[in-house]
Amino acid sequence: MTPEISAAVAVTGWRKSSHSGDEGACVEMAVVPGIVAVRDSKDPHGPLLSFPPAAWRAFTQAPPTR
Where does the DUF397 domain start and stop, copy by copy (predicted)? Predict the structure, then answer.
């Protein structure tokens, strides 16, 4: 991730998933133009994943699997 995108994510702020419970297994996301960034809330300074918005939309709208 470029320094410009990292700075944009820092300014935008992170949102925790509404499906996160109290077990500490939380996912946070930040949206900046052209990118959706995802990280583990337990490790805010650790690695993050970035996705094009269309890929993130497909992931979040996919039916659950068993």
Answer: 13-61
| Spatial distance between the Cα atoms of 59 and 21, rounded to a whole number of angstroms | 20
Query: CA triplet 10, 30, 60: central angle to 5 degrees?
Result: 170
Q: How many helices (H) and strands (E) does the chain have?
A: 2, 4
| CA-to-CA separations, 57 to 21, 42, 60, in angstroms, rounded | 22, 24, 5
Q: What is the pLDDT of residues 33-49, one digit of tens each?
A: 888 999 888 888 888 89
> Residue 63 corresponds to which tokens in the numbers above?
């039916």
Q: Does the structure show a pLDDT above 70 at 54?
A: yes
